[in-house]
Amino acid sequence: MHIFHKGLMLSCLPLILVSAAAVGGLNGVDVVITNDSTDDVLVTVYDTSTHPSSVLLTSERINGFTKIPVALSLDETGRGNVAWTAVSVDARSRKCGHATSEGLTDSAAVSVHADSACAGP
Fold this sequence. Notes:
The protein is α+β, with helices and mostly antiparallel strands. Helix content is about 20%, strand content about 40%.
């Protein structure tokens, strides 16, 4: 009888691990922040699914065509929302960018760039 219980426990172990992984996926959305240009940028990323918004990256330097994974909280629809700002690293030719992306699901890519004139004096 003892061998039967041990065999039953071992056969259920994969099911328990798969279930735990599936439930863990319900806690957030994994997305990738991608610098879609050749220029290095300083990026700040906000999780706008939370209220107030939470900061995920603060002035993170992202090299050209580099990807950084981040985890977003889920909104009431079960999707992730993000806002970002970017500033080019090159001080001689300062450029800025910003955008929001809503309704993101797992493995979504959010492209960031600094290709517009910066506001201010």
